[in-house]
Each structure stands twice: as structure tokens, then as C-alpha cells.
């Protein structure tokens, strides 16, 4: 019997219209375009404006783009996973709402949260469901409205994050393409270094937490930076070794877009030519769960059937990992 592998067969994306430039940030906090560009590589990021629009708004738009590009009937979708660190609400699943709104009325759905590794872990989960033979169409969406947890008076954080969503469809493949291997890790001793302190079950929001601005994301940038550089490269190298891949074999590195310097350091450790390292952080900043699908959407026209791609991410928790996948189609 042919082994079933799980391949990505379509991608979609959505970025909000509003562009927050480095220039505009200069008028909001004590910063400048040169500092932001040299330290992070970011030039601009997108912000979702408008009342009553949450993460699901972008998740729905990215899924709708995928559905129309691929020309599928949403009723055929078996499962919708929304990877997100900024769900619409506590308790009510963002994925359930998204699935219903896109017409995936035969699907079950759930949210998956692992900070900046949410989408990477989601790739593992989606692939496992396909490989098991139980489901044929799994829609994985990475979406985050990071602006909902940013203090726009804190220059160390507000320059980094943006809002966006990206979607991929996983389907069975009988040519051995798609998901090949993974090396996923986590370490809870890193939780203090990147977090939103209040609003969860440990410290629900009160007047006092709001006054102290504990409801915003904060990080110890240097500690996160060092851990990200070391760990993203470490897991990527492990996946290369385990699959006997040299730098020449690899077609692309698709790294989480948190900082241009982290991305370049990971590529260098893998001895990859810069032309093989996907990067769009300059346009969107760090979009948390959306970075990996946004890369696929932006690079889709350059990807060829059989391309060997290493995905790598690092984020809060700490959580991190790498996935090796063979691309399943060439764009027309
Ligand atoms: O996706 C989740 C994972 N997150 C990450 O991977 C983020 C990892 N960390 C980083 O990307 C970097 O640490 C940052 C971009 C957040 C910061 O860069 P850095 O090179 O580590 O700078 P720093 O925090 O050490 O700050 C250096 C200086 C400080 O001034 P002093 O103390 O040297 O006088 C900061 O106050 O730069 C100052 N600074 C700024 N200056 C202008 C911090 N933010 C800014 C700013 N504009 N926006």
C-alpha cells in the first residue's frame, strides 16, 4: 500500500489595508527608521482598524482567498484549525466561528495556541490527521491581531508586531510529497521572558492590571533573541542531519519572521545562500502565527514541485521547532 503523506495544495493570505510605517512610529514614540531597520529589518507593518474586527476577520478573508483560488467547495473541508495567540474571545473558539463563516459547515474546528510556534505546530497536527487517513481536507489558518495587545507608547515592542492571516490546505499525497519530518520542542522556564501578564486565569484583568498596563505584551528582547538564534538553528540542523540533507539539497528556508538578524543567523548556521532564505519581515513585521503562511503566499509563484523546504520557528513559552516538507506543486 502506498504511504499517504500530507501535502500543502493551496495557500491564501490576508493583510489589512492600513500600513503603519517607521515614519509614523517616529511621531508616536522616541525611535527612528534607521534604528528599526538595522535592528529588526522592519520597514512597515499592517494594522487591522475598525470596530468589532478581531482575528477571525482576517482568518476568514485568508481562507476565502484560498477557497476561491483553489476553487473548492468549503463543505468538503473536514477540519479547520486556527493557529493564533490572539483569539477573538476567551472561551468561544475562533476556529468555530471562522469555519461557519466560510461555509465549512461539515468541518469540526479548534484553535491552537503556542505563541509564535502556533502555525508550525499546526502543520504537525494537520499533517498527522491527513497521514492517519481519517480526513482528506484540513484547512490550517495562522492569524493574529497583534495590535490588540500592543502598548503603542512602548518603543521596545510597538515597532515589531503587525496583524495578518495566512491559510494553507493539507490534502493526501501519494507521490511522497508534503510533510517529511519534524523536530518540535518547548521549555516552560522561558515563560517569564515573553508574555502578556494579565487577562489569563493566573491574573484576570482588573482596574489595577489595566492601570499597570499588564494587559500588554512585554518581552526581554535580548534573552528572547539569544534563545531564538540558538534554538532555531539547532532544530533546523537536527532535521537536516536526520534526513541526510546538505545545504545544497535544501531549496528554501521558511523561518518565522521575528527579526531579520535572527533569520540571517539561522540561514548562516545552515550555510544557506541568502537567496534561499524566505523573508518578508520588511513588509509585515512579526505577525506571530501568520508569518509562515504569509511567506508561502508571497513566494508561491517561485516554488516548484519537489522543492525541499525547512520551516523553523521560535516563540513564547518558550516553544520552537523545525519541519521538513517537500512542496507538492508548481504554480502556473
Ligand atoms: O516572535 C517572538 C520572538 N521574539 C523575538 O524573537 C524578538 C527577539 N528580540 C529582538 O528582536 C531584539 O532584542 C529587539 C529588536 C526587540 C531589540 O533589539 P536589541 O538589539 O536587542 O536592542 P536592546 O533591547 O538591547 O536595546 C538597545 C538600545 C537600548 O538603549 P540603551 O539602553 O542602550 O541606551 C534601548 O532602549 O536601543 C534602545 N531601543 C530603541 N531605540 C530606538 C529599544 N527600542 C528602541 C527603538 N528605537 N524602537
3D architecture notes:
The protein has helices spanning 22-26, 33-40, 55-70, 94-101, 118-131, 155-158, 207-211, 221-242, 260-269, 281-284, 291-299, and strands at 5-14, 18-21, 44-47, 79-83, 108-112, 138-145, 163-173, 178-186, 194-196, 217-219, 252-255, 308-315, 319-326. The chain is an alpha/beta fold and 332 residues long. It has 2 domains: 5-176, 3-Layer(aba) Sandwich (Peroxisomal Thiolase, Chain A, domain 1); 179-326, Peroxisomal Thiolase, Chain A, domain 1 (3-Layer(aba) Sandwich). The strands form 4 sheets. The protein has a 5-stranded mixed sheet with strand order 1-7-6-4-5, sandwiched between helices. Strand 12 and strand 13 form a beta hairpin. The mean pLDDT is 97. It binds oxa(dethia)-CoA (UT7).
Low-confidence stretches: none
Task: Quote the average pLDDT.
Answer: 97
How many domains comprise the coordinates?
2
SS summary, helix count? 11
Main beta sheet strand tally, sense and closure: 5 strands, mixed
Strand elements, count: 13
Report the oligomer: single chain
Task: State the share of residues found in helices, binned by percent.
Answer: 25-40%
Query: From the helix content, strand content and strand pairing, which structural class follows?
Result: alpha/beta
